[in-house]
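Each lists chain and fold; for instance:
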Amino acid sequence: MRARVYRSAKRLFECKLLESGELVEATALGKLLKKGIVVGDFVQLSYDESTSEYQIDEVEERESEIFRILIRENKKKITAANCNLLVILMSVSKPAYKRGLVDRFLIRASQWGIKPIVVFNKMDQYEEDEFDLKFEEKRLSILGVDCFEISALQGEEYKQRFLEKGIVELKEALAKRTAIFLGQSGVGKSKTITNLSGGKVELKTKNVGKVGKGSHTTTWSEIIDLPLFSLIDSPGIRSFSLEDINPKDLIMYFPDIEEMGVNCKFKDCAHTENVKGCIFHSGQIDQEELDIYFSRLESYQRILEEIGQTPEWEKGL
């Protein structure tokens, strides 16, 4: 019988039978445990009537994996599987919007093979003269990333529309998907999920004593079924290192820069102002478009410098 892993605890797994919707506990054979079974996996179960126990006999091939590379251990740590939507939740007030963090999440979305969307929260606190929302939307739309605006505190459609897509469109994008929400502490992740669930699920956070800071109480991954979609819930992320990425491969996670860069005179162009023949400093690109490219170049160069500090031999690359 086919099922999906909703929670795991060492050798015991809580699985949902897809035909009946019943949640059951199951064990697994040693060879499967060694290979790894994670939340989100689709599995085949058998039932032993003599012991009244379920056993996982097979793990189906994964469509996507949420993972990170532990470079000191030269190990790939997979935390969840078969997620098909990554929701990057950002604030337009406090905490301040971090463009570089969004670009980091987009890199991981590409690595994991998951479609990303960006949701701008706290629109009830939005100040046009302090944050250029339309610019951020445009730089993301060039990458094929859809943007949405919401006010989790209000819960319903925000009265003033700045972008084309709001809470109604967000719900449509989430429908029948398995999604994971990522964002820095304080962006309103728990409140947003509570509102999207119609108040049926409330994710609790604990105060750590600083304004705009919060710490998610969840310390493991699990799937939560909501009326519109399934949520993979995981611990909050305070830092998002990319040190496991080979510097030579970073450019492929910036397809816009890579595509325009073919017009540079030299293939190994560093895209800096003092490099001759660089398309980005040639005066051939419209200023508005150039501003977007420069914002992406800034992220690329900052990350490249960061990941270049760890020797490749130490990464096991």
Summary: The longest helix spans residues 287-307. The longest strand covers residues 2-9. The mean pLDDT is 85. The radius of gyration is 22 Å.
